[in-house]
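Hi, can you check this record?
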Amino acid sequence: MTAEQPVQPQEIPVLDYGEQPEASNLVLPKSASLSSPAQWTHLHFEVQQQPAHDTGEHRHQMHILTMVTSGTPISQSIDGQSQHHLVGQNNAFILPAGALHRCNWQQDIEFMFVGLAPHVFIQVGQELVNSDRIELIPQFATIQDPLIQGILFTLKQELIASDINTHLFVDRLKVTLVAHLLRKYGVQKVQIATYTDGLPRYKLNQLLDYIDTHLDCSLRLEELAQQVNMSQFYFSRLFKQSLGIAPHQYVIQQRVERAKQLLRKGDLSLAEISLECGFANQGHLNRHFKRLTGTTPKEIARMYKKTSKIM
């Protein structure tokens, strides 16, 4: 007789979306319906539609925020604590990086989740809370939070719109979400300081010159905040107080204004103008141009051409 081989403990999968964007396939039977592009740095977002399933135990390298949009009852275990038959339309739950998690449901389910790199919490939280207190408290799927719902649905709409050059907007959503999670679901609750004066005039002028010079580039929120030596969170708030609009809205406005100037000259094609102004493509230019001016670049180009002939 041969001795029985000892049973090896089953290895618990660790989902690392930075290294493997499709890591959710390790614990889910179907691939994501929608998934964020690589350009969404330090953030991973998915929309899922799954049949009845048990994920088994697993961990995440990122902090995970999940919202169940179908109202499907679920049972969960987080670090050995369990709750059963959790149900609610748009209920959310929070898994800090490294938390041991298991989840199961007995019917079709729809949910979306966002994974956020832990170092983003340090970057955003450094002006809000002591660095040794930047930690999330695990939360079962009982959270009803309108801001979380709004941000996740907006991220979904950004994916559906398929604009690959919306970095500033997604960065702002990311920073707003991280600050909110730290404020409401962190180990140490934080108070957000309020300012009324906006950015100092010299810093604002310096920043606007930088944006104008780099308008054709893929600008990021972190990059702009560094120009004035501020955290992304407070930079976003002070910028909006200064100009009345968010950084991503200002950049889009300036790109449209530059497109008008280039259309007036009439030297470049619409595709060339799109790239020269920092738009992802001609469709991206058309959408924002019409939204801000009420007309299309082609119509403006024709108007300038007629005007030049008359003169």
Remarks:
- The chain has a mean pLDDT of 88.
- The longest strand covers residues 43-50.
- The CA atoms of residues 133 and 188 lie 6 Å apart.
